[in-house]
Amino acid sequence: MTIHQSPEAFGYDAFLRAHQSKEVLRFITCGSVDDGKSTLIGRLLHDTKQIFDDQVTALQRDSRKHGTQGGEVDLALLVDGLQAEREQGITIDVAYRFFSTDKRSFIVADTPGHEQYTRNMATGASTADVAVILVDARQGLTRQTRRHALLVSLLGIHRVALAINKMDLVGWSQNRFDEIVAGFQAFAAPLNFTEVRAIPLSAKNGDNVVLPGAAAPWYTDVPLLRYLEEVPVKSEERAAAFRLPVQWVNRPNSDFRGFSGLIASGSVAPGDRVTVAPSGKSSTVARIFTADGDLPRAHEGQSVTLVLTDEIDASRGAVIATADALPTLTDRLDVRLFWAAESELTAGAELWAKVGTQVVNARVGAVHRRIDPETGQAGATDRLAVNDIGDVTLQLDRQIAVDPYLENRDTGSLILIDRETTDTAALGLVQASAAPAGTEAAPVATAAAPEPARGGGLLAGIKRLFGG
After folding, report:
1. Which of 39, 124, 184, 329 would staple 111 via disulfide (CB 3.0–4.6 Å)?
2. pTM value?
3. Phi, psi of 50 (to 5 degrees)
4. Which residues define the annotated binding site?
């Protein structure tokens, strides 16, 4: 077994400097059960020399006990860390791994293939830029393959690498590869993907994962890693308007008052005119303060404190936005929900909705439709069961600032929280405001919402942990 170089070999400082300025690409692996998602990630980690010596030793030991590759090292065990996953040989929870090359750094989410863990897959996809959808060359497209492709589309991922795995088990047949690609393209045609790049590979052997595979001379395109290094994601996205959900008011003394938070989208510079929602008060940015000193401009993904020229009343949950492109203020929302609770959701249900950095009371005004996760077709319904995807109207107890999810994935997403258990009940994507604020409706019963941990919640928790 090759001994892999670790950061200690040349110093942590040099290691961090070499990687801190790189662009970060987030991607997920998804698909049906046993398509080889965990093995693929293990292969990426192994062949890019991201495994330390002690991990190699532990992997050899664990492969003898839990491995599914006979006497060979089982790379899937690098990702499947839960005891239940190792015992059953499946992925249950979302596993995140970090690796880096000379061109980019990557955060990869290995998502489960079983239908009952669809909600976990949606969690992993919620922050991803690219989806790697795996297909077992022997099985072809399955029900879960189509299900995951639809979910990826609904969650706003526009680029897909169709990784047709286990090609070594079908003799690297070009006819079989072309057949699967044609079937997927026909299914995905209405999903409006920007790109679907099909790659034949063997995660077990490593062909066309990091290095080109000699077994398929008919394939002349790049291996998977090269695609991930070069895929132009950020540069093609429409520039989103500036949004900073206020995390807390920074007031160390009477001479300083600033609004701290993570920039969700866009950029800001001193002199820019901004408006605080929902109050509607406007001011000008005087300083962009950070622990490392003031910045001339701050961008999406940076945590900063904005100091304004005017004394404006704002607190946690407010959204500071560019003055000429404001978010929508509303107390009623049309939302597409990924329902995760075991109990059914019906009209009248009362929950907490966590939107950005604030928690509000929400009542389900109506359940309109359920989306078939295999076909994408909508059917009328009045309830949602666990793992269902559906469209509902939420009535809130106050106005909030939001954007449609297709315009801004941060200010257009929310989670619903069960009031009794405080468990996450659903992930929601804002479609539009359901009615002008002030429309007559039954009042929403209020309940004291717990103060969430800073940056808490499904989407924000993931982004806090992995730097988004």
Report:
1. 124
2. 0.76
3. -105, 5
4. 31-38, 110-114, 165-168
